[in-house]
Design a protein that fits this description.
310 residues, alpha+beta, 5-stranded mixed β-sheet
């Protein structure tokens, strides 16, 4: 009985092993068939190679495990209060250039003639992002800090796929142009080629922008100096010197105003003096001569004798 049970268990295990092998072979065949269909449809050769490679669910060999590539756009905003914004800005420039980055923008202004505020936009490599951000936050008194990380892997993969497809499309149109014999076909194909090349250039520009944003992180740094406030002055009782100074200032102010009034009246006085001189030495003598002539030509009649006198 025991030998019969042992034989039954061995047969059962063998049947299970054969079933598992059959299922694995079926999955592998399905994967190979899908890879062939994808390649026939113009799919990427990498997809076909991946499908025809190791079986699904099988563990990767040690030392050959490749992590999935991710593309992250990192941005940060940091506000720091420092004693000397100009000197700190020079230090920040040295830190950024030492890390392989550069300054994309800078704005500095003096506020209320008491303190300076600077805003700089920094571009640093992704692998230096954390260290540079920590050094910037330690340049002075940290007022605020905001960091953001956005995963754009889907966008990068989509753009790469569209670029490859568009390049293949442009190549096909060029091949058709080489075989075209009619002028109408050539004109039509040239228009289509121009449209597809424009789309390809747009995709390449978008890919370059994504590459720049994922390769270099952006940090906006705001540096400000503490406001310098003057304390209120103590008002003391006026002394002799203050009174003398105040009186002298009042005298000078009065003299200045008198001078202003005299200067304002002087033109009118000068004009009146000229008019008076003209009337005194020219008009008046001319009017006096006709009166004198009249008095010499018609002498006055002699007075009549008084009554009782011969």
């Amino acid at each position: 009985m025991r030998a019969r049970h042992k034989l039954t268990a061995v047969l059962l295990l063998a049947s299970l092993a054969l079933a598992g092998c059959g299922a694995s072979d079926g999955e592998s065949a399905s994967a190979d068939r899908a890879a062939v269909d994808e390649a026939a449809k113009g799919g990427a050769p990498e997809a076909a190679a991946g499908a025809a490679g190791p079986k699904a669910g099988a563990p990767a060999a040690p030392g050959r495990q490749l992590p999935a590539a991710t593309h992250i756009v990192r941005t940060a905003e940091v506000a720091v209060q420092v004693k000397d914004a100009t000197r700190t800005l020079a230090e920040v420039r040295a830190v950024v250039e030492g890390s392989g980055g550069h300054i994309a923008g800078e704005s500095t202004e003096r506020v209320d003639r008491t303190h300076v505020e600077s805003t700089v936009v920094l571009r640093v490599p992704q692998d230096q992002y954390a260290s540079v951000l920590a050094r910037l936050a330690g340049t002075g008194k940290l007022l605020s800090r905001k960091a953001d990380a956005k995963d754009v892997t889907d966008q990068v993969v989509d753009v790469e796929s569209r670029v490859a497809t568009q390049r293949a499309s442009v190549a096909r149109v060029r091949a058709l142009m080489d075989r075209a014999t009619k002028l109408s076909d050539v004109v039509t194909l040239e228009g289509e080629l121009s449209r597809r090349q424009a789309e390809l250039e747009s995709l390449l520009s978008r890919r370059a922008s994504l590459k720049d944003r994922t390769t270099m992180a952006t940090i906006t740094l705001r540096l400000s100096e503490p406001e310098k406030r003057e304390g209120p002055r103590e008002e003391d009782d006026p002394g002799f010197v203050d009174a003398l100074s105040g009186g002298w200032n009042a005298l000078v102010t009065t003299a200045r105003w008198i001078g202003v009034v005299v200067a304002a009246v002087f033109p009118f006085g000068a004009a009146l003096a000229v008019l008076y001189a003209v009337w005194r030495w020219l008009v008046r003598p001319l009017r006096a001569r006709p009166a004198a002539r009249r008095s010499g030509a018609d002498p006055a009649p002699a007075p009549a004798p008084a009554p009782g006198q011969d």
